[in-house]
UniProtKB/TrEMBL annotation:
GO terms for molecular function: clathrin light chain binding. CHCR repeats lie at residues 5-137. GO terms for cellular component: cell cortex; clathrin complex; clathrin-coated endocytic vesicle. One of its GO terms (biological process) is receptor-mediated endocytosis. Transmembrane segments: none annotated. This is Clathrin heavy chain linker core motif domain-containing protein. It comes from the Eukaryota. Pfam families: Clathrin.
């Protein structure tokens, strides 16, 4: 039965499958299949995005996953984290150098130390100008 399930799941577009399962709040059901795909060497961002969402929701070392995994889409996962855990959104955005998103999340959630550390590491004067803009206050 499990082999049939694995065979049939391979025929679906991962983005579509994840979207449908996510609508029903059942993403965790895909965990074994997603992990098996990762172990098979799958580097498809949709697979890694879905796995990141599950780890974030289940609090299964999400920060470690976000820092070490190189295949997820930083904007997709960062957006997913914004309301759940802004700190994790910053980790995802930092990894992908999503400057505007990180600055916005830091300002909206008063994560000024995180923002300052990021700006110092990036060493981009334009980012400082954007971060210090009066509209961001």
């Amino acid at each position: 039965m499990i082999q049939i399930l694995h065979f049939n799941l391979r025929q679906f577009d991962t983005d579509e499958l994840v979207a449908e399962v996510e609508k029903r709040n059942r993403l965790k059901l895909l965990l074994p299949w997603l992990e098996s795909r990762i172990h098979e060497g799958c580097v498809e961002p949709a697979t890694h995005n879905a796995l990141a969402k599950i780890y974030i929701d289940s609090n299964n070392n999400p920060e470690r996953f976000l820092r070490e995994n190189q295949f997820y889409d930083s904007r997709v996962v960062g957006k997913y984290c914004e309301k759940r855990d802004p700190h994790l959104a910053c980790v995802a955005y930092e990894r992908g150098q999503c400057d505007q998103e990180l600055i916005r999340v830091c300002n909206e959630n008063s994560l000024f130390k995180t923002e300052a550390r990021y700006l110092v590491r990036r060493k981009e004067p334009e980012l400082w100008v954007e971060a210090l803009n009066d509209e961001n206050a």
